[in-house]
Amino acid sequence: MKLFNYFRSSASFRVRIALQLKGLPYEYVPVHLVKGEQCAPAYTSLVGDALVPMLDVDGAHLTQSMAIIEYLDETHPQPALMPADALGRARVRALAQTVACEIHPINNLRVLKYLSRDLGVDEDAKNTWYRHWVRLGLEAFERQLQQPATGRFCHGDTPTLADCCLVPQIFNGQRFKVNFEGLDRTMAVFEACMALEAFQRAQPSQCPDAEA
Amino acid sequence: MKLFNYFRSSASFRVRIALQLKGLPYEYVPVHLVKGEQCAPAYTSLVGDALVPMLDVDGAHLTQSMAIIEYLDETHPQPALMPADALGRARVRALAQTVACEIHPINNLRVLKYLSRDLGVDEDAKNTWYRHWVRLGLEAFERQLQQPATGRFCHGDTPTLADCCLVPQIFNGQRFKVNFEGLDRTMAVFEACMALEAFQRAQPSQCPDAEA
């Protein structure tokens, strides 16, 4: 398998975590988002959406991080990243989507660029925007973690798709100095994740294309 | 089952389509987003993320439209809204997420409100923002539909989760006068969907809380 990704991309980070948790070897192919390499014809000829990550599995080009992780879980079931019961799966997917549909899209690189370049939003207002949506989303995440199904991790005592999505969002929030106060359950899960070697190995600073 | 939703919410519309395709009866509970009813304590005490839709299944409160639809598909397998093979499921989820993670979140009501109220963006620039992201996302969607797995619908010849996500986005784009030129495959799938009674019944104008 080849993972086309960028060290700082949250969506890429999610898939790296899943690959590490499953112990699956892969070739790391860097795509430099800030340099716009995702828009080069060599890449867009492979990937319809011109986004990272893309996982090449024997010539099939899988896109969208949550879809990739569910594919990995279906084809390499152990250790499981999804609960065995339908209600549990619904909860884990909802938690993952709270990050991937409610927080991250509003704050990714291309949206922030549009704010600056097309709407003339200054640096301060852009950072306020960023922090607003991350904080709002994580407060919703925290309320969902009040449910009894939460364990050491988002759902029970082993990592799931939800943890794969949460951790990169916290990393991203830390870069933008988001206020995490009062998000006790969320941050406890984050700490539990980061105590695991799989999460450590997947983090941006450990990537071949990492920059200071 | 009770569906807490809003006639004009794209994410609610996705779930209504799935319920209609499955032929599942449900109670319609309107939550008026423009009036802010999703933030009232009566609702937030049930729903951690203060968003619609929420599906109440025997007291379990399911959130996030794609998670709800996968739950419905797992618990009521016929007609199937997901392909039988892992690669097919990955493709359908990626198409759904192209709408639900790349287009819709940047354009929903709360984001548009923030642009106007907090950033002072005028009506014209807000509409340009809206059309930019929908068009960009649908162009990516169109490129993905060039794959041979596309049939009358997004994936093969029966509707899937991907169609449940696409159709509400087209409705939404029509309201904001998005230019759909050149998106031939996408619009052909949209027409095929709208020829089905299930999609017609789920549309905003057919909802009990519909407004002109």
Automatic annotation (TrEMBL), chains A, B:
EC code: 5.2.1.2
Q: Name one Pfam family in it.
A: GST_N
The highest taxon in the source lineage is Bacteria
In this chain the GST C-terminal domain maps to 85-212
- Enzyme class comes to isomerase
| Keyword Isomerase found | yes
> What does the UniProt keyword field contain?
Isomerase
Question: Is Isomerase one of the keywords UniProt gives this record?
Answer: yes
Enumerate the spans annotated as GST N-terminal domain: 1-80
Among PROSITE patterns, the record links this protein to: GST_CTER, GST_NTER
* Molecular function as annotated in GO: maleylacetoacetate isomerase activity
Q: Which SUPFAM superfamilies match?
A: GST C-terminal domain-like, Thioredoxin-like
Which protein family is it in? Belongs to the GST superfamily. Zeta family.
Protein name stated in the entry: Maleylacetoacetate isomerase
Native organism is Curvibacter microcysteis
